Amino acid sequence: MVQEHFILAFLWILFCVLHSLLASVRIKQKLAAAMGSNFKHYRLLYTLFALATLGVVIYYQIRIDSPYIYKPTTFTIVAGIAVGLTGLVVMTVCIKKYFLSLSGLKSLVEERPASELMLGGIHRFVRHPLYTGTFIFIWGGFIALSLLSLLIANFIITVYTLIGIELEEKKLEAEFGTAYKTYKQQVPKLFPALHRK
User: How far is Cα 194 from Cα 20, in angstroms, rounded to an integer?
Assistant: First the structure.
């Protein structure tokens, strides 16, 4: 059982490393040179690869026998489901808003999809609502089920995402300049401020 959980941690870390490498500017530049005009479809290929590898990791996670951290009760199950569904709603709103760009499908209809700084809708309250929704969803799942395997996965996903947000913000500042810096000063990163200026 211990070995299976170490393998699970390794698989999640490997997934995160591959995800970052394939999204890095350096790798993209090399692939752009190699792929030529076909590079416009890179985002779509990247998304399909990410979904396939994510499916493998989740399949392994579901298959292993994992102990509970605490015994679930009716309260924790209901509370966890409510929290998880809230996160899922936030994620759905975000994915619906920029599904074509996020998935890479936009490359099938546009020669060079334009980057756009999202400021409206849910982005008025937090800068990274998809990550906010993801955190709420995965930790809601843990509240409901409290499996060691979920704790391992959630911890790795959370640390990876927090690091990724910092790197993403640097890219956004480089791409959008003063507009993004102003946005950063006005809107919180992950959770809405109780008292906004």
Answer: 33
